[in-house]
Design a protein that fits this description.
BirA Bifunctional Protein, domain 2, alpha+beta, single chain, 5-stranded mixed β-sheet, about 425 residues, 16 strands, binds adenosine-5'-triphosphate, Rossmann fold, elongated, 2 domains, 8-stranded mixed β-sheet, binds magnesium ion
């Protein structure tokens, strides 16, 4: 019978890779909680209408990429393609704005988009994201960008570029949209089909086009940065100054846009040259109109999302992540000894040691080989003699030094054992 395989565009994260994921998660959790961001977990599926309104029907995500289906009660549902819409729905539904002040939230989890799978692009992928709701202050923009860069830096990632733009407020964008349409209309026949369609529906999105011909026409297109009103310009200047005070350098990129009306002011992306065409690891921006669009009271917001698969690819290239080290590897042979070995293992684990127990029942020689390969600091040996005398042989694998210890003294010796192990590790 043929075996069943994982769905195209999904991947198993196997034990040899999971350490990288855990490291990203631990660093993010730590840095975000130090900045007083709180985790929020929302459902993986929502009503389809949430994403149609929250992401916009004219976007590729809603138009082409959603996993939408009807459940047995005929309700239109969608596997979430991103995190913001669900977080904002939850914020409104639970009246989090009524708690006053600014809500700083983060989330992490799988997202689903029907895309052509390739390196760094999957149909089930994972995003880490933050959303700051209730502050229109430019410092909130700077804070979220700083946190994204801190997370990436703590992971040891270098050579990342931050692309930054402002798309101003609604009026600025209305003026720019007109200018862009006026510029592009004479070239309409030369634009790619999607862009022709967008010329009336959503002209700003044309700036995103990957088509070389369209990009060439865009070379001489007007720049949004020349259409910012005085307030928007001042806000953008302040943000750039603050980022420079934070020693975060950004490239101004006036082609970075969001097509929808509820996006305002700041847009940014963090990119790497080491990812081929899937270069963006983090994308974010301000969405002052989104909460109202989804039925809440007028509440400004800003957020970003990072693609974790792409971070893992970058970490793989660094190869700095060591797998968790084992303190003790326990080998045993003989019925009594094997039973005592598990008791010893649990004692050590309760004392805080990482302890691997060989369950193979194979000859001591084979078990010793596995002990060496495990990278453990020490091997504990239990044979018939040790079982009789309720002792263990403790062998330090680096020096070969071996001593007999009563099983009952392992727990009292915790501090002593811990310091010996850390000495060994410090010596490399
Ligand atoms: P792209 O242009 O690469 O399709 P996007 O604009 O669709 O990106 P966003 O919706 O802004 O991406 O999502 C934020 C981040 O999530 C991206 O920068 C990327 O790191 C990651 N991401 C998006 N789609 C995928 C996917 N299908 N597979 C893996 N990661 C993804
Ligand atoms: Mg995409």
């Amino acid at each position: 019978m043929s075996s069943i395989q994982a769905i195209r565009g999904t991947r198993d994260i196997l034990p040899d890779e999971v350490g990288k994921w855990q490291r990203i998660e631990a660093i993010a959790r730590d840095l975000l909680s130090r900045a007083a961001y709180q985790e929020i977990r929302t459902p993986i599926f929502e009503q389809t209408a949430l994403f149609e309104r929250g992401i916009g029907e004219a976007t590729d995500v809603v138009g082409k990429e959603m996993y939408s289906f009807k459940d047995r009660g005929d309700r239109p549902l969608t596997l979430r393609p991103e995190g913001t819409a669900g977080v904002v729905r939850s914020f409104i539904e639970h009246g989090l704005q009524a708690q006053g002040g600014v809500q700083r939230l983060w989330y992490l989890g799988p997202m689903f988009r029907y895309e052509r799978p390739q390196a760094g692009r999957q149909r089930q992928f994972h995003q880490l994201g933050v959303e700051v709701l209730g502050s229109a202050d430019f410092r909130a923009d700077a804070e979220t960008i700083a946190l994204a860069t801190d997370i990436l830096q703590s992971l040891g990632l270098k050579d990342l570029r931050i692309e930054l733009n402002s798309i101003g407020n609604g009026d600025d964008r209305q003026n720019y949209r007109e200018a862009l349409v006026n510029y592009l209309t004479p070239f309409k026949a030369e634009l790619d089909a999607d862009s022709q369609d967008r010329l009336t529906r959503n002209p700003l999105r044309i700036l995103d086009s990957k088509d070389a011909g369209t990009q060439k026409i865009l070379d001489n297109a007007p720049s949004i940065l020349n259409y910012l009103g005085a307030d928007s310009q001042q806000r953008f200047d302040r943000l750039q100054q603050l980022l420079s005070d934070l020693r975060i350098s950004c490239n101004l990129n006036d082609r970075l846009v969001r097509g929808l009306d509820y996006y305002t002011h700041t847009v940014f992306e963090i990119q790497s040259d080491d990812l081929g065409s899937q270069a963006t690891v983090c994308a974010g921006g301000r969405y002052d109109g989104l909460v109202a669009e989804l039925g809440g009271s007028d509440t400004p917001g800003i957020g970003w999302a990072m693609g974790l698969e792409r971070l893992v690819i970058l970490l793989q290239q660094l190869q700095t992540v060591k797998s968790a080290s084992v303190d003790f590897y326990i080998v045993s042979k003989g019925e009594k000894a094997e039973a005592q070995a598990l008791v010893v293992a649990q004692t050590l684990r309760r004392s805080g040691f990482t302890t691997e127990l060989d369950l193979s029942g194979s000859a001591f020689g084979k078990q010793f080989k596995r002990a060496d390969r495990s990278g453990a600091a020490a091997c504990l040996i239990l044979g018939d003699a040790e079982a009789e005398s309720k002792t263990v042989q403790l062998k330090w694998l680096k020096t070969g030094e071996q001593t007999a210890i009563a099983q009952s003294s392992l727990h009292p010796m915790t501090e002593d054992l811990r310091s010996q192990i850390s000495h060994l590790r410090d010596d490399g």
